[in-house]
């Protein structure tokens, strides 16, 4: 779930300023699904986790429900909190994407918890089938998600050890700070000098001047 923010985009050659998201709710899993989708998903093995996740996130649920019933004037007031000069004549309310909220069992407490972000799911052998659950990865997380997918499907695949020899040199060339011995984004083994070099090399590749 994203926090409310202003977002400047060029869409179809036209400059636009977007604001969102506002909370919404639907019992459908797909746009043209059934209002019974959510109820059908409740089973004996997950109803406890579902109720537990709700009880632990009541403030979030209340905030989302307030957004659902918020009037146009209320939505405009939210925009003006970030952009005081906002004119209602310049804004159009457009329904955006809908996603199903993932609820997992907390391994430490056994209770239900909300799962945010994108989770990579593979079969036990790894590499034969792979799927993504949760939010679609944006620019800030897509590289980490891609590395997680490669690590699970190729580098950790016990049935095809030759994958590691093919992928590791390629990844180290693309991402000098990456190591097959640590998770994506982990800075384990880095020194202040190596991190400074990474910033410098990244700045040169992106044509910016890191300080």
Q: Could you explain the architecture of this structure?
A:
- With 211 residues, the chain is an alpha+beta fold.
- It has 2 domains: 5-116, no CATH class; 119-206, no CATH class.
- Helices cover 37% and strands 15% of the residues.
- The protein is built from 7 helices and 6 strands, in the order E-E-H-H-H-H-E-E-E-E-H-H-H.
- It has helices spanning 37-40, 47-56, 58-68, 72-82, 142-155, 162-174, 192-206; strands at residues 5-11, 14-20, 102-105, 112-115, 118-122, 130-134.
- A two-stranded antiparallel ribbon has the order 1-2.
- A hairpin with a 6-residue loop joins strand 3 (102-105) and strand 4 (112-115).
- The mean pLDDT is 82.
Question: What's the layout of helices and strands?
Answer:
Layout: E1 5-11, E2 14-20, H1 37-40, H2 47-56, H3 58-68, H4 72-82, E3 102-105, E4 112-115, E5 118-122, E6 130-134, H5 142-155, H6 162-174, H7 192-206
Antiparallel strand pairs: 1-2, 3-4, 5-6
């Amino acid at each position: 779930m994203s926090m409310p923010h202003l977002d400047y985009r060029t869409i179809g050659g036209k400059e636009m300023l977007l604001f969102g998201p506002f909370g919404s709710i639907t019992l459908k899993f797909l746009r043209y699904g059934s209002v019974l989708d959510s109820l059908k998903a409740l089973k004996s093995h997950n109803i406890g986790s579902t109720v537990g996740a709700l009880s632990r996130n009541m403030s979030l649920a209340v905030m989302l429900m307030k957004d659902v019933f918020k009037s146009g004037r209320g939505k405009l007031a939210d925009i003006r909190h970030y952009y005081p000069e906002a004119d209602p004549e310049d804004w159009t309310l457009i329904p955006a994407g809908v996603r199903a909220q993932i609820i997992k069992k907390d391994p430490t407490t056994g209770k239900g918890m909300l799962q945010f972000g994108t989770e990579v799911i593979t079969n036990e052998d790894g590499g034969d089938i792979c799927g993504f659950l949760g939010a679609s990865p944006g620019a800030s997380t897509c590289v980490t998600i891609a590395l997680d997918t490669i690590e699970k499907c190729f580098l950790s695949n016990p049935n095809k050890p030759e994958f590691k020899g093919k992928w590791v040199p390629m990844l180290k060339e693309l991402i000098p700070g990456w190591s097959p011995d640590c998770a994506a984004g982990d800075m384990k083994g880095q020194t202040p000098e190596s991190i400074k070099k990474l910033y410098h090399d990244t700045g040169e590749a992106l044509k910016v001047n890191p300080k």
